[in-house]
Amino acid sequence: MRFTRSLAVALGAAGLVATACGSSSSTDTDASTTEASAGASATTEAGGTAASEAAGGGTVTIGAIEMLSGSGAFYGKAVQEGLEVAVDELNAKGGILGNKVELKVEDNASDNAQTTTLVNKFAEDDSVGAIIPPTYQPNFNAACSAATEAKLPIVSAQSGPADPANNTDNFCFTMTTDPVPQVTFTLNALKELGLTKLTMVYDQDNGYVAFQRPNIEKAAADVGIEITEIGVPGGTTDFGPQITQLIDGAPQATFPFFTIEDAARFMKQAADKGYEGKWFDPVSQLTSKRIPELSGGAAVGLLASTPQSAGDIETFQAFLDAYEEKNGQPLDDPTYTGFGYDALMNLAAAMEKAGSTSDRAKIQEALAGQAKPCYSICFTLSTSGATNGAFLADQFYMVELTDKGFEPAA
């Protein structure tokens, strides 16, 4: 039996949309420019006209702001890799409006003030029709505020929707998931498997965990499942006391809500101490191919929900194949990289529809008109309430971790 769920009917459901990674601020900055071969979305060089855009044969530069240094570099670089795959694919198909695409990525070092400065820098160039802002939620909100003032469309990868107070004119978009429907889907799937006695062991000092806990608790209440919670101080490496408490509670399945490395360490220590229950992940936190090796095999059998199941979605498998061909190795964790690819492909499609890479009003209108776009996965655009401007992943799938990676769960 395959577990899948469409999100289209859930857009009116209450709940927050997941923010991106937690990260501390830093001050060092860096800029990199990538020239690839696959059209993404971009802008004509300064002085370009709508007529020259339509004629094609030139070059457009897509601006992006990401965390390329500091503690958030893992996430920023993951998004950048997805952008680069999109650029290659678009250029292979003729670019945007016949213009070759180049990607310019600026490092904001996870800093809100630096984000604002960089948004304003791009906005001052009339040839820039839209940009990709940083994924880290506070940075995205800062970018949205500056972009709204400049009337510059932005499309983020895996940020939560912008603060409505900042997104007053609907210039801020994001490709993301809605956690309450995702967790609800996961818990219903576990319930169908007879797994109803659940525990969540979590890092009580992790900002992302703090954001998601209320979403998980709400979904559990909606489904009618009680999840026992065990908090762990941040930085813990010996989980002995918490594992003893876990084993004494005898849950059927446990969510180790930590970073990938800490979750793997926890699962290995728990298995060594005799834990016999299953593992689950309702928010795509642990969808890394490194988990089996890092956990000494203890994580094999983990059940997770994801909108990015290569075994169920041909277009997502095609994205993974393109990534591997470009980088010479498989993609470890697809979450941020996949959404980075989707963000740029969505922006490119809007520019094609607008007939311009620099007319901000037309690009904004085109983005707002893309109700159900599909790239590596499919999305549904939310146009009201707290999720306004969010392209929400359209469907979730249950996958199971094997020693070869994640496969559709049976």
Q: Please, could you describe this protein's structure?
A:
By secondary structure, the protein is an alpha/beta fold. The protein folds into two domains: 31-177 and 314-392, Response regulator (Rossmann fold); 179-306, 3-Layer(aba) Sandwich (Rossmann fold). It contains twelve helices and 16 strands. Strands 1, 8, 9, 10, 11, 12, 15 and 16 form an eight-stranded mixed β-sheet that branches. The chain starts with a strand and ends with a strand. The protein is elongated.
Largest sheet: 8 strands, mixed
**Computed CA radius of gyration, to the nearest angstrom:** 21 Å
**Average of pLDDT:** 87
Distance between the termini: 5 Å
Give the overall form: elongated
**The CATH class of the largest domain:** Alpha Beta
At CATH level 2, the architecture of the largest domain is: 3-Layer(aba) Sandwich
User: Strand share of the residues?
Assistant: 15-25%
Q: List the quaternary state of the chains.
A: single chain
Helix content: 25-40%
Domain module tally: 2
Structural class: alpha/beta
Report the count of strand segments: 16
Q: What's the CATH superfamily of the largest domain, by name?
A: Response regulator
Strand/helix succession: EEHEHEHEHEEHEHEHEHEHEHHHEEEE
The helix count comes to: 12
